[in-house]
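Incident log, structure service

09:12 report received: a user says their structure output differs between two submissions of the same chain.
09:20 pulled the input from the user's history:
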Amino acid sequence: MALTLPAHADPLVDRLHTSGLLAELAHGLGGPFHYLLPQAFETNLAAFHSALADAGVEGRVHYAKKANKAAVFIDRCAAQGAGADIASLGELREALGHGVRGEDLVVTGPAKSDALLRVAARHGALIAVDALDELDRVLALRQPRPPRVLLRVHPPAQPRSRFGLGGGDLDAAMRECAEAGDRVRMEGFSFHLSGYDVQQRADLAADLVDLCLKARVLGLQADRISIGGGFAVDYVPADAWQRFIEQQRPADYHADKAFAERDFYPYHSPVAGADALAAVLAARPAGTDGSLAQRLRQAGVMLLLEPGRALLDRAGSSVFTVQGVKDRDRDRDGYGIVTVDGTSLSLSEQWFNSEYLPDPRLLSADAGRPDGPGPYRACVAGASCLDSDLLTWRKIAFPVRPRVGDLLVYPNTAGYQMDSNESPFHELPLPPKVVIDFPEDTGRPRWRLDR
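09:34 re-ran on a clean worker, output below:
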């Protein structure tokens, strides 16, 4: 029996899939495309703001722009008064060009270029300093106003992390900022944590609050901390995920490809998105009597967040057209290979030698087509000459045998999937992004290209 991992039901997505618009777009655009749902992005952003307000914590949300290159999400940040987390000069220009104010930007990433530091400082962006030599370059800037900085702290719980200042370097950085006087505004501290551990994030956040108090003794402003992103997305139901993890084996994949549980993103999370932020704020940091929220309020420290994937939950999907179906090993295993008009470079989990696991949804090009016998098990291949170009190695249990012209919709790919690794391999055009809105007056979806 084939393992299934259906994405959570989404009424907005169902309305779109039954509207007929996707088939029109596939015909008109002549290739694969990604659709974007900015309404979902706004809903997620509002939920993060509500979590801060409910906890009585002063905070700001900065959308991690690296999670998706689309312009519409930065537009919505500007419209909703949110900030952005950027890590390159190109991202900085995009954010400013779409209306996000310089002072609402946080500049992250290691070893930033001189050009990025110069432009960020000129526009009043907050720069997360990752190393002593980077701090020296910031202090050497000659700008009309002092650069704003956070000092990024190396996470003790993740000693192999390449990010942040540890031990003596952190003390030296604070002393340099204090000695620099009005040549710099040291506004606090930040960290980068891998994973989604709530308690670990709360513990390190409390340590950063203590560092703010220590820095104030040196005469530094130190009134805010950034806990980065790391808010999980819940893609699939708990029972389906547990069954998949327990039962998946090489025989479930084309060519008996083997994956270990550690290879996969945790596609089910019992606490996700803004609920994960609420859990971090409610957690009691080690060695303290109250919650992190209480600690922030008592110390007068603002909380900065940099969610990416979590703001993009259900905010977009990737659509491919079936170009061919090959039956394979009918006497042995009876599965097929469905080839679509794109490549695996549009699903970035392949970058991690992993796989995007939520089941693609088959939309038939023939509405009156009989279901016929099913299910039909098949992997999904890209239209390139590479044997390893598979969008899905797993043998998906499609309800019927796909046909040429059918659509495959990979759900919920807006966060880090749809454009991180895209390439015009074979001179294939990059899939365009299509923004979908649902006007209240008609209820019918309407579309426009993102750029």
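09:41 both user submissions now match this output. Likely a transient worker issue. Closing.
09:42 reviewer note: The domain at 11-37+314-449 is CATH 2.40.37.10 (Lyase, Ornithine Decarboxylase; Chain A, domain 1). The chain has a mean pLDDT of 94.
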